[in-house]
Amino acid sequence: MGDILDSRDILFASLMGSQAVGLIQRSNIVQNELSKRVLPPIPFLPLKNETEIAKAGSYTIENNWQVNDSTPESKQFFPLSFSFTEGGQKWLFPFEPMINISSGNNIIKRNVAKQGEKLIGTIKERWSRKDFDIQVTGVLIGSMLKGKVEDTFPREQMERLFEFLIFAKEIYVYCHPLEILGITKVVVEDYSFPFTKGENVQAYDIKLVSDFAYNLIVKEPM
User: Which end of the chain has fewer CB atoms within 10 angstroms, the N or the C?
Assistant: First the structure.
């Protein structure tokens, strides 16, 4: 079941590029529940009839070139926001992205010479927790389907996002799953803007790494 891509997955993969296929397959069960919230209807793809167009709500029958360029935070399941400072002005991602979180432990292992039958494996001497790697994949969508680049391409959204991507300090992040894991700050490690179908659509893929405050100065008691 999880290895089969349905029509919605194929549409998403065509937007996001081939790298998203593996992520879709791994999160297929979750996406079945979130698909109505994660991505808006894509009106430049064929729709069956005008009834479906009206239900989609992304553009009107009177003006088929007008689309919504964002989803309100209240209608997003796991909205994601960035801020340059703690408690500062937040920038909400226009459409809810897919977020993949991974981590683990750093373990120092030692092999014991002349192991007996009861000494199996290695001695784990020391361990520490790894950073959280956070992959954020989503799309930016302009308000017009066709026309001049300044009218269709989501330039303002992309410029705002790019300001965070090149920021040479930690970024404050707000998202419910991250807050559960104690992640409030991240740094940007990698990002890309892959080729995306549609004049008014631009995909992005961002790799974030968690950042925590440390006190490396230890004061000895007097």
Answer: C
